[in-house]
Amino acid sequence: MSRLSTIAAAMGGFMLIGSALAEDQAVTTTPAIAGVVAAGTPIELIKDGFTGTEGPIAYANNSLLFTENQANRVTQIAADGSTSSFLDNTNGVNALAFSADGVLYAVQTLQTRVGIVFPADKVKVLADNFEGKAFGRPNDLVIDKNQVVYFTDSGAQARPDQPAPTSAVAKPAVYRISAAGALTRIAADIERPNGIQLSPDEKVLYVANTNGEYVLAYDIGKDGAIGPRRSFARLDGVKPTETGITSGADGLAVDSKGRVYVATSLGIQVFSDHGKALGIIALPKQPQNLAFAGAGKRTLYAVGRGAAYKIAVLTPGYKGRAK
After folding, report:
1. What is the DSSP track for 11-66?
2. d(Cα 77, Cα 88) in Å, to the nearest integer?
């Protein structure tokens, strides 16, 4: 069986066009993935038509927050599925993370920076440049139990109507902000660092490389220093582009067993804590990011391309952090 046929079989036989599902194929249920989802679990559409969809994270009263980047807003999905605005005028917030004391951190993309955005009396900028160069596009972040912030800068993306990034913009990289506020660049050899996540025991840092075929991993020492880059999990659906390759790898999530969930061009790819591929959950629209939330964190939420979905899971998300 070819690699593409294997992928199609894992996704219930749905036809692929390029790396995306054919639009006339209605993906409404999951395949069976042991310990993750039962066969035929409904993929429930919460709502479509959002303006940009990123950065989901568990919040109070079994709700979920996510960002509408293009609308400059943080939106809340209540336990009953209703939606409301949580924060407006957010400076293009793209991803969210709560510290242990309930303070909401975010990466921001209009004036590129990382900082605290909620509550109002704690709002502040933590970092807006590295060695005098502005961040290109801060993308995702995660906070450990000691309030150390790890975040990715995927780099300024030139558009036809805009000039190419100048040398005044920092190159794509992964950064660390200590609890005392010290900024360190910890990885600068990733083509396009995107989603970022910690293992439940916070001994491993995962980074999704959109322009690569692997989710990357770095071991974290007791002193906070990270070890060498290693390839953690090989992604399916990698395709060539004019400048290299892409997997569409975006947001990451972990469950209580340490499994790693990756939003990609094919849907949600699931790996064991040792990087073994376990299966793929195809979605009606390509996901950009995902998070466990709801009662007992037994619901997996995925957002992307203006839509938000939820899926009941067999193993809950890790409860030691909001993300």
Report:
1. TTT--EETTEE-TT----B---BTTTB-TT-B-EEEEE--SS-EEEEEETTTEEEE
2. 15
Q: Give the SS3 label for residue 314.
A: coil
Token pair of 213 as six digits: 């075929």
Q: How far apart are CA 135 and CA 133, in angstroms?
A: 7
In the chain, what is the straight-line distance between the N-terminal and C-terminal CA atoms, in Å? Answer: 37
Cβ atoms within 10 Å of 239's Cβ, excluding its own: 11
User: Which amino acid, 95?
Assistant: A
The pLDDT tens digits of the residues spanning 194-235 come to 999 999 999 999 999 999 999 999 999 988 899 999 999 999
The highest-level CATH class for domain 3-157+168-312 is mainly beta
User: What would the pLDDT profile of 167-184 be if each residue is shown by its tens digit?
Assistant: 689 999 999 999 999 999
Distance separating alpha carbons of residues 149 and 196, to the nearest angstrom:
11
pLDDT above 50: residue 279: yes
Nearest partner of 150 among 201, 207, 112, 101, judged by Cα: 207
Least Cα distance to 237 among 272, 208, 268, 264 occurs for: 264
Q: Where are the domains of the chain?
A: 3-157+168-312
pLDDT tens for residues 9-61?
444 433 333 334 444 357 899 999 999 999 999 999 999 999 999 999 999 99
State the DSSP code for 169: B
Q: Which two tokens stand for residue 195?
A: 């989603």
Put simply, whether the predicted model's pTM sits higher than 0.85 gets the answer yes
Q: Name the amino acid, one letter, at 231.
A: S
Spatial separation of the C-alpha atoms in residues 76 and 59, rounded to whole Å: 9
DSSP symbol at 320: S
Among left, alpha and beta (phi > 0; psi -120 to 50; other), residue 72 is left
Q: How far, in whole angstroms, is CA 100 from its chain's centroid?
A: 19
